[in-house]
Specification:
- The protein is mostly helical.
- Helix content is about 50%, strand content about 5%.
- It has helices at about 15-30, 45-60, 70-85, 105-125, 140-155, and strands at about 1-5, 35-40, 90, 155.
- The strands form 2 sheets. The chain has a two-stranded antiparallel sheet with strand order 1-3. Strands 2-4 form a two-stranded antiparallel ribbon.
- Helix 1 (about 15-30) runs parallel beside helix 5.
- The chain is globular, with a radius of gyration of 15 Å.
- The termini are far apart.
- Mean pLDDT is about 90; it is low at about 1-5.
């Protein structure tokens, strides 16, 4: 994984799935009203679809394989990543677009996928180890997806005066 330049991000901390979904709704409302400012490259629908996609991968299998040396570095950083957040600007080598589940989606489709994905996550234990962090407990899976949502939603500014 290599880091790229980091765009302006807002501070966001999410403690549970209800907060993820409430923040997604807030972002969606701002987007529909023409008030959403984006400082990243993705639309809100694309962001929500990406988050949902990675939730689904832990149940259905991952379309990416981590290079061993990068997985080893990520494993060392796992406690910090789960507690403090994921690094911005990370790209998975050899993966087109740098990550998976990045198709551009309409806002409401991405939001629906995120709702369904989060319900699935809260309803059961992941079946596949994460390609970088390996086997995780249920609590660690939740923390990982909370930090992932924080990362991507930090590029979406629903309170912007546009």
């Amino acid at each position: 994984m290599e880091g790229l330049g980091v765009s302006e991000r807002r501070a966001i901390r999410l403690e549970c799935g209800a907060e993820v979904l409430a923040e997604a709704e807030r972002i969606a409302c701002a987007d529909r009203a023409g008030r959403l400012r984006r400082t990243g490259n993705w639309t809100a629908g694309q962001c929500f679809g990406h988050l949902a996609g990675w939730i689904g991968f832990c149940f259905d299998g991952y379309p990416v394989v981590a290079p061993p040396e990068l997985a080893a570095r990520a494993l060392v950083r796992k406690p910090t990543a789960l507690r403090e957040g994921l690094m911005a600007g990370v790209r998975i080598p050899g993966v087109e677009g740098g990550t998976a589940a990045i198709e551009v989606l309409p806002l409401d489709e991405g939001l629906a996928r995120l709702r369904a994905g989060w319900a699935r996550l809260e309803g059961g234990m992941a079946r596949f180890p994460h390609p970088f962090f390996g086997a995780l407990t249920y609590e660690e899976w939740m923390m990982l997806h909370l930090r992932h949502a924080e990362l991507h939603m930090s590029y979406l500014h629903p309170d912007a005066n546009t």
